[in-house]
Design brief:
The protein is an alpha+beta fold. Helices cover 30% and strands 21% of the residues. The chain contains 7 helices and 8 strands. The longest helix has 11 residues. The model has no long low-confidence stretch (mean pLDDT 92).
Length: 182
């Protein structure tokens, strides 16, 4: 785990298991690493990325969390990513044009350990080229992704998904809810 965190601190990118699917990630505060993620995926920078946090405290350090968000997180049966208004302390390349950020409070132990040791959020985007179907297991990952990413923890190679993707909800500070993906 220490080696993974050291590599992330150096600006490296990884292919890793999340609480949903295999993801591509990096230190969410490293602008160069975030740019590498966009390049690895051939993804336009106009399409923002999700970040993972390990605790309610880390979430609250980044955004003002509407009360409704806590209920959505607690009662949703599968992982939920919420798009919040007005993030702070993050790389500009992670923030959408409408000044929002997609964040998932992860329950995944592997991700929580990385985030905790890094002392900050990590980027999480599907381990596929932009426009392609997300791989369910390591053997389905496009070889281009494998060649472009800096490192792959062994846990990614043994990954078996419990969920195919997270629910994505946009939640404004005035509690307006919009379901982006179920």
């Amino acid at each position: 785990m220490n080696e993974i965190v050291a590599k992330l601190k150096q600006g490296e990118t990884m292919l890793y298991p999340t609480d949903t699917i295999l993801g591509l990630g990096c230190d969410a505060k490293n602008e160069a690493a975030i740019e590498k993620i966009y390049q690895i995926k051939n993804r336009p920078s106009s399409k923002s990325l999700i970040i993972l946090v390990d605790s309610p405290r880390m979430l609250q350090d980044i955004v003002e969390v509407p009360e409704l968000a806590w209920d959505l997180i607690e009662f949703n049966e599968k992982p939920i990513t919420i798009i919040y208004d007005n993030p702070k302390g993050l790389s500009k390349s992670l923030i959408a044009d409408d000044n929002t950020i997609a964040i998932r409070l992860t329950d995944d132990l592997f991700c929580k350990k990385i985030i905790g040791k890094l002392k900050g959020p990590i980027v999480s985007t599907s381990a596929n080229l932009s426009g392609e179907i997300s791989p369910k297991v390591f053997s389905e990952v496009n070889k281009t992704i494998i060649e472009r990413v800096d490192f792959i923890p062994e846990e990614a190679k043994m990954f078996v998904p419990q969920f195919t993707a997270s629910t994505i909800i946009k939640l404004s500070l005035d509690n307006e809810v919009k379901v982006i993906r179920e």
